[in-house]
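User: Continuing from earlier, I have the next pair ready.

Assistant: Great, send them over.

User: Here they are, in order.

Assistant: Folding the first of the pair now:
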Amino acid sequence: MSFRLREVPLLSRVGADRADQLRTDTEAAVAGWSAAALVRVDPRNQVLVADGRVVLHDAAGLGDTPPPDAVFLGRIGDGRHVWAIRSALQAPPDSDVTVLDLRATGNIFDDASAQLVSSAIALLNWHESARFSPVDGTPTKSARSGWARTNPLTGAEEFPRIDPAVICLVHDGADRVVLARQHNWPVRMFSLLAGFVEAGESFEACVVREVHEEVGLSVRDVSYLGSQPWPFPRSLMVGFHAVADPGEEFVFSDGEITEANWFTREEVRAALAAGAWDGGNADAKLLLPGSISIARTIIESWAEQA
């Protein structure tokens, strides 16, 4: 059985111009700063949201030029530059503005907001963990409008770190799918199998290894579906589906998965209708991931098949 994603995952959509050519054009960056918009991200990776969009502040309020810790995100539809900084947040009283977490509520975002916020979180998280050279420990400085850090002694550049991970829907080629629960998840919360790619390993090989390590199944016919950035703190989720034999026994050897089961398409459809696992549906027999995740998109795409 083959299928495609029903839609592009939210965090993979393009809603703004990344304008990467401006990252090294200092004069253009400074010239656009006075009219630029600013995304504020708090230490918990939350942002201010109103009417389904991230709240954009006036960057000029921070001064005449971008502060050293600001990161350039690109340009939005009206041509304005957009930057981001780490900042405490407080929603104005008696307003529709709220402080929200992308992981919990990102499904309400428009495409531009999702792209800006995911990029801002990924870059700001990376800067906080890359303040020293991995070679000699020298304090590094932000460069390329926040898209690199340089060693002032050697001139060596470091670029944002991305950790690739696979996420796979394992099915029987017909109407059953494997869903698993990690040991630290509440009862009834299930999702797809996932794991980080190892050095010298392809995505497809990682799928085979991770599925076998986590639940003991041998998979075949590994097929690519799509990808999604997951900036918590710096992952790229690469989605696949693969076929396994329901006659094989589950074996939980790596300690990460505590329970896995085969579920029918009808059971999955009922769970999708009940909402996401953060929706507070206490009566649902099966709770599935939130709509911001590629896991949800993959599951929905499989469930739609006849």
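And the other member of the pair:
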Amino acid sequence: MPAPGGEPSVQAWIPALQATAVCLSTLWLLLTLFSRERTPLRWVWALFCASIAMAMARRLIGPDVATWSLLFAIGGCVTCNGYWLVARALFRTGRPFGAPHLAFAGTVALLIVLAQLARAGDGSSPLATAAVGEMLGLLGSTVLMLTLWEGLRGWRTHRGVERGMRALFVASYGGCVLVVSLGTAMFDPQGTGAWQAGGDPVAAVLILLVSQGLVAWRLRHPLEDLAARADDEKPNVVPSAQAPPAGFRDAEPTAVRAEDRALARTLEQHMRSERPWLRTDLKLGHLAQALDVGEYRISRAIHDVLGHRNVAHYVNRYRLDHARAMLGDPDCDGWSTLVVGLESGFGSLGAFHRAFKAAEGCTPGEYRSARPAPDDVAGRQPA
């Protein structure tokens, strides 16, 4: 609708912004669904994009198409609560969320659905409608704060690109929340919804653009890999021979030590029988899920019982043993070192060469040329 003086109204840009949000969220959703890898981050990101697409589509078609408008409104019930799960998957290692987190996000989604049904006139009493609105307002504000906290959590422990990633997340999401909430209070005190109608699609477009970049970067640089790399770069301090090393084995009671030793035996059996180390993306969370124990217990068994620096060091032990056997097998001479590395579970030739040279003092090609004796190769197999 033209504004006085013939200038186009700002309201005329709102449908274009809403359509942009629908297109972006649909594009990100399709790209995620057609990806071969299935991770918690991909699933919750796809769910969030689908919900944003429905929420913006509902505003785009308007309330005149009552049936579709209600369906889209119900489908858009995983926006802020869904983004909280995305934030947890971005900035937490292992299993980023469990049943309590999903239950909380589901409760918020249910309240959103009930609020939409009440607005559509389902015959709910005014008292029930007011109660749903109050609960939704309280839990919605909680979700916003929890989402921001995920980006700020552990701020001092991160450096470089990882800290920049978190700063971008907090600035973009926090800025959108502030602009929409404060702008509504300042420029729409009567509660007409005009400011929010334009602010919501702008915030949705910005969050979709920034978050897609963050998700893509995280999928290529998992937090577990960054932590393992930082751990590998720490100096390997050898404790004094006069005093026993301080650690779990001296500090914990005998019952707990026996429990960890039993878990270490189970883990070794799992590694030999199931060979999960052939997965290039094997993480601490995968081992914990396979054995149905907490990640801290797996980590404690690997470090304190089996004597490895970290999970990556432990997993590479099996990969290197497999690579040595292949390099020592004349039947595998036609395979390049790249193929040997990939077949042993390494994600790239560079990672294979670095790990092999650190363990053997030579490259895989040099090791193959030396052709170790079969007995020597067999002696390197895990006990």
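Worth noting for the second one:
The mean pLDDT is 80. Residues 91 and 306 are 28 Å apart (CA to CA).
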